[in-house]
Amino acid sequence: MITLTSAQLDAWLATLIFPLSRILSMIGSSPVLGNKQVPKRVKIGLSVLLAILIAPAIGEMPPVSVGSTQGILIMIQQIIIGVAMGFTMRLIFTAVEMAGELSGLQMGLGFASFYDPINATHSAVIAQWMGIIAILAFLALNGHLYMISTLAESFQTLPIGSMMSYRGFYGVVSWGGSIFAYALQISLPILAALLITNIALGILTRAAPQLNLFAVGFPITLAIGFFVLALSIPYFAPILDRVTQEGVGTALNLVKLPH
To answer: Which residue of 16, 187, 194, 254 has the lowest C-beta tally within 10 Å?
Structure first.
């Protein structure tokens, strides 16, 4: 007859529940895997599977009960860590969508917006299109595997029971600030081309005042915007790859033990 003590049961639960809290919170806040189109059963099932696979390599757990006050605090710590890591990776797609918003606004498509089921809000068509391209490129570059690898490595750099340092929280803020620079870099070719186009249209309007700027300028800016957007697509993957690598590095730096 097999007998279990309460201490053994608490240890088994802690081995699964504590890693599961970090894994589930990261998957829920991360891009692609955390999208609303992904069923909740898939998210929970994947989190449980990863917890079962990662738990044996984590090492010793804090000798606390899951239902105790200290155990609940540890779970909250793991949730904060997971959300911070997932949020760091999601900022990559925020930069791409922001670049699409800037490009669409300059092209004259700022009014053309549709409901975005991923973010549960209305966004510009160009932003949604660039977001879809970013998701496909992210999967092609194995970005989802990088996320899972970073998650598994985080249990070694920041064991269960430890909390992120202030440098980690500052890293999230700094990474969020750099997203604006990446959004400008992605949309800069279109912005530069449309700026030159608007200057040329302004000179043309001064030379021929009888010319209807709205009837002529809108099709020209729209056509040039799509043309430059098509030309810049081959250069989009290298930028996204670099941003993804920096995002993974930033997420890993968040979960390093404070020195």
So the answer is: 16
